[in-house]
TrEMBL record:
Domain FHA stretches: 82-131
PANTHER family: NUCLEAR INHIBITOR OF PROTEIN PHOSPHATASE-1
Alphabetical list of Pfam families matching this protein: FHA
Protein's name according to its UniProt entry: PSer/pThr/pTyr-binding forkhead associated (FHA) protein
InterPro entries on file: Cell_Proc_Reg/RNA_Proc (IPR050923), FHA_dom (IPR000253), SMAD_FHA_dom_sf (IPR008984)
Amino acid sequence: MQGIVLQLTRVGFLLLLWLMIWAVLRVIRSDVYAATGQRPLTRYERRNRGGAPARVKGGPRYLIVTHGALANTRITLGTQPVLLGRADDSTLVLTDEYASERHARLVRRGDDWYVEDLGSTNGTYLDRAKVTTAVRVPLATPVRVGKTVIELRP
């Protein structure tokens, strides 16, 4: 009887060790992708796109609010910049106490859109990286302005 308990204890500890190693590797992987500003490809993208990220001809068409007070709000993108903030003349007027009057701006350059922080108090984040200069925004990558999260969609 003691032999079975000892073997089960050994197997349990081995299983816990492997789960801990797996969790550490996932954290390291997410930190690496956060530092590079890229996101890992999904299985679907790797299988159907040959490893290349999806790119829609002509770029994104909509700005979608995914989290925050204005969740599920959709703005059709044109050629004009999109101003984000609490000011009444903003394209997307945020009712968020963590957003500045003129918090951030999305600007179109060719087929790509770039986000730039306008000197906000709490900062603008592309995925998990703080935006300090104009940064290209890939499709479906979260941009956080206060408690509001937006994404560009085709």
